[in-house]
Write a structure and sequence with these properties.
Elements (H helix, E strand, L loop, with lengths): L2 E7 L2 E7 L5 H6 L7 H12 L4 H25 L6 H5 L1 H21 L3 H30 L21 H45 L1
Antiparallel strand pairs: 1-2
Length: 210
């Protein structure tokens, strides 16, 4: 049976419990009974895997490839009169960031490495900020005319494609599609960051307890 002593010192009450060697709790407190560091790390990484990082990474890789491919096509087709998204380079820097984020998330599914989870958190934080900026860029493009169709003087001639309403509809459709992609990427990054932050917090707490 455990013996308990109570000591009052400086307004603080200290309760000490002495556990006999036959108590099952004594085995848990023995130095050799603590799980190794890699086992604790593996447990935390498994918690991160509840977010399905492979699925989230696949989303980022797939949409990243779409961004880069459309960026190349639109950059070539709009040479000389680039639209706002093309001029900003959003297709390329967001696409490459998504490819990096997706690759890290897929790799985290295979490896029990808390450092890899931390890296995923940092990169996905960048993805969250980038998708917000990209959404703003595409939304601004929807509210503006087709490049080369703005008239600064009353008698300035417009290009032939400016009189075709279908071109503006197509341009707005593309921008709206990429706004949807940005929202999807944003949600995937938030999920990865939330589960990753929780895993890192548990890792830091476990290390502090030790």
């Amino acid at each position: 049976m455990a013996a308990t002593t109570v000591t009052d010192s400086g307004g603080v009450r200290i309760i000490t419990e002495v556990i006999p060697a036959t108590d099952p709790r004594a085995a848990q407190l023995a130095p050799g009974s603590r799980p190794p560091a890699h086992a604790a790390s593996s447990f935390q990484v498994r918690g991160f895997r509840k977010a399905q990082p492979k699925a989230l990474g696949t989303i980022h890789i797939f949409t990243g490839i779409i961004h880069v491919c459309f960026g190349i096509i639109l950059t070539v087709s709009e040479y000389g009169t680039p639209s706002i998204p093309v001029a900003s380079g959003v297709f390329f820097w967001l696409g490459l960031l998504l490819l990096v984020s997706g690759s890290l998330l897929v790799e985290s599914e295979k490896r029990d490495n808390i450092s890899l989870v931390k890296t995923c958190c940092v990169v996905n934080m960048g993805v969250i900020l980038s998708t917000l900026v990209a959404t703003l860029v595409h939304a601004t493009a929807i509210t503006h005319n087709i490049p080369g169709c703005d008239t600064n003087t009353p008698y300035q001639l417009k290009a032939e494609w400016c009189f075709n309403a279908g071109n503006k509809v197509l341009s707005n459709g593309l921008d709206f599609m990429f706004v949807i992609f940005c929202l999807l990427e944003f949600c995937a990054a938030v999920a990865a960051l939330a589960f990753g932050y929780d895993a890192v917090k548990q890792h830091n707490y476990t290390r502090m307890v030790r």
